[in-house]
Amino acid sequence: MSKILFDGQIIDRDNLVDIEDRGYQFGDGVYEVIGVYEGRPFMMDEHLHRLKRSAGEIQLNLPFSLEEFRRQLNQLVKANHLDEGIIYLQVTRGAASRWHEFPGRGVRPKVTAYTRAEERMTQVEDQGGHAVLTEDIRWLRCDIKTLNLLPNVLAKQKAVENGAVEAILHRGDTVTEASASNVFIVKNGELFTHPANNYILNGITRQKVLEICRKINIPVHEQTYTVDELLAADEVFVTATKSDIIPILEVDGNQIGSGKPGATTGQILKQFRSLIHELVHT
Ligand code: PMP
């Protein structure tokens, strides 16, 4: 049986959710998904820092230090002999009688984590996929990685029903991000992506892509752009943990650029893969 992390202990996976866990009833919690490549978690510290920030924004005190989280998650990866896949980590405000307000001080946040084996998505990264557009109907704190994902679920379902890999979200004319990834466009060799504010999740992959672009001298603009600008872009790609960088070749039936993965996207993907290579071989 696979192992999970439960309140600081590595135990067998079992049906342990309390019916009154606030994550289960209110989506009152935060989470992270960390990519694992050949047994090595990628950018674990960045993910843990984002978890701490998300928790702080909903006034939830993490019950372990980041150092302790790191130790426990590494132990979990080993216990499950995980090679390729992800770690899912969540912290809820705990289990208590169901009242909307925060429970009393005696209620401890509940930390759980598990791993899932997943193949690398190199084929779709190399070949690209299609996307659909859908209105961004989420709340105004998309910077917090909370368990409330129903609008994202509905958007992704629309993508899948249309044979697309992602649903790109827009608030009115402005493109924000996608259901589970950040969106970038390339125009005349320059990169544009929505600024990291309350309208998007500041993706760890997004931040790495921006760092890569600065390193290889691709001009970057953390600036909003419209749906029309998206459709008129030379290249579009989305980024997320473990699916890394996926070129988008068509949006709502409109071909993007040449309809093939673009050169700038390819350059960034190559650099990203060399970071993974370094991770695995050092
Ligand atoms: N935006 C949203 C809404 C997400 O859910 C995710 C994570 N899947 C991302 C962006 C990408 O973030 P990261 O690169 O940290 O996985």
From TrEMBL:
Chain segments annotated as coiled-coil in the UniProt record: none
The UniProt record lists the keyword Transferase: yes
Chemical reaction(s) catalysed: D-alanine + 2-oxoglutarate = D-glutamate + pyruvate
Record keywords, A-Z: Aminotransferase, Pyridoxal phosphate, Transferase
E.C. code: 2.6.1.21
InterPro entries: Aminotrans_IV, Aminotrans_IV_CS, Aminotransferase-like, BCAT-like_C, BCAT-like_N, Class-IV_PLP-Dep_Aminotrnsfr, D_amino_transT
Protein family according to the UniProt entry: Belongs to the class-IV pyridoxal-phosphate-dependent aminotransferase family.
Function according to Swiss-Prot or TrEMBL: Acts on the D-isomers of alanine, leucine, aspartate, glutamate, aminobutyrate, norvaline and asparagine. The enzyme transfers an amino group from a substrate D-amino acid to the pyridoxal phosphate cofactor to form pyridoxamine and an alpha-keto acid in the first half-reaction.
Assembly information from the UniProt record: Homodimer.
Name of the featured protein: D-alanine aminotransferase
Species for this entry: Virgibacillus sediminis
Lineage: Bacteria, Bacillati, Bacillota, Bacilli, Bacillales
